[in-house]
Structures are given as C-alpha cells and as structure tokens.
Design brief:
Layout: H1 2-12, H2 26-42, E1 49-53, H3 55-58, E2 65-66, E3 69-73, H4 81-87, E4 99-103, H5 118-138, E5 142-145, H6 161-177, E6 180-182, H7 211-221
Parallel strand pairs: 1-3, 1-4, 4-5, 5-6
Antiparallel strand pairs: 2-3
Helix pairs in contact: 1-2, 4-5, 5-6
C-alpha cells in the first residue's frame, strides 16, 4: 500500500527528467527504487550516513565512506522537493543515522515551472523544510547542500538563475530551523551564472564526478577526522 501511494504521488507531481532521455514511467521507477532503499535501511550499520535527495544524491556510490562511516543512499532520481517530502514518511529507519546529507532542487528548476515566481519559491522552501524535519527525526545531524550547477546545454529548459536563488533559500532555511548548510559545488560553478565550468557536467544535468563532492562534504561533517572518499 505504501509503495502504491508513492507511485501516485510521484506520478502526479510531474517530475523533471533530463531532456531527450528515454521515456519511462517515473512512478514505476520510484517503486522499484524503494525496494532497494528499504533493503539498505534494513541492513544499515550503526553510525551510517544517510544520503538523500534526487539523482544528484542517488549517483553517490553507496560503496564510498564518509567520516569513516558507511553510506546508505536513499536518493530517488527525478524527485522534486514536493515528491521527496511526500515519500519520506513512507520509509522506516530501523537504525538511526549519525548524519543525513540532503541534495534536492535540480528538478524544481525546470523553466516551465516558473521557479523564480515568489509563490513557487516559497513552496520549495516549505517542502525542503518538511524534508529536513523528517530527517531530523532519524539522524543526529542534517546537512543540506546547495543546488548543483547545471550544464549550459539545458539553458533553454532550466532556469539557471534559480540555482543561486534556491541555494540561498536553503541556506536561510538552515539558519532558521537548525540544519547545516554546505556548498560542495563551489569550485565547480561558473561564477554566479548557475552553470558549471567546462567539463563539470556529464550530460547537462548531472556531474562528471561525484567523489570530490563527498570529499568536500566531509569538511562539514567531520572537519577533524580523516575521510577518504
């Protein structure tokens, strides 16, 4: 029943996927993805770090470690903040995480959604706040990252200016509700354009390399510990 509810919520939210990607049923993908997510959560080791969010999170390899701790990846490709906020209550966390890292927002930047409209941006902030509130109940610390840079190939389909605007909104949210804000993508940005430097984006939407992102996040999670992503 829980998975059926996720299917409905995901399908109805109109997820944003990479332009020109093969057509597929997003709701069906989410259902199958959550099978793996539940399995990882059931077998989680004490002290693990939770990686949550959209495809920018899901593409982090669960074989990596951060702060010497294993990763449990519960990212769902294509998820908007609204979809992810609706999905989290359906998940059970038998073992508490030492920390949670949330990366969300890329799929909220599709131009036709008018992401810079005040009411749309306000809803995004509320949805991220809901996600953080849930993650706080299952982890000791919550880190929310900035929105990753986009590739210029998507300039006509995504609102690049919203990358900075939504990142600033996340930073302000964390200052208000008590999560940690981190920008592990700062060295990848082409100034304040919202786009990545040449070679940063593999396909316009995703990054070429995710391991350095995890290494940068270690500076926030474990500044005095050796971490070797």
């Amino acid at each position: 029943m829980a998975l059926a509810l996720v299917t409905v919520s995901v399908a109805s939210a109109g997820l944003g996927w990479l332009a020109h990607a093969p057509k597929h049923d997003v709701g069906e993908y989410a259902v199958h993805r959550l099978v793996a997510v539940h399995q990882q959560l059931d077998e989680a080791e004490p002290g693990y770090v939770l990686v949550a969010g959209d495809s920018q999170a899901e593409l982090q390899s669960p074989s990596e470690r951060i702060c010497g701790a294993p990763i449990v990846n519960i990212g769902v490709s294509g998820a908007t903040a609204a979809v992810y906020a609706g999905m989290l209550p359906e998940l059970e966390f038998p073992v508490r995480a030492s920390a949670a890292i949330l990366t969300i927002g890329t799929n909220d930047l599709i131009g036709k959604k008018n992401p810079l409209a005040p009411d749309v941006a306000d809803r995004f902030g509320q949805e991220v706040g809901s996600i953080v509130a849930r993650l706080k109940t299952v982890s000791d610390r919550v880190v929310v990252t900035a929105v990753p840079p986009l590739g210029r190939a998507l300039a006509d389909e995504f609102e690049a200016k919203a990358v900075a605007a939504y990142s600033e909104r996340i930073e302000a949210l964390c200052a208000r509700i008590g999560c940690l804000y981190a920008d592990p993508f700062s060295e990848l940005r082409d100034g304040d354009t919202g786009f990545g430097r040449p070679g940063v984006n593999r396909n316009g939407l995703h990054l070429t390399r995710y391991r350095p992102v995890l290494r940068n996040l270690a500076a926030t999670l474990c500044p005095h510990a050796a971490s070797a992503p």
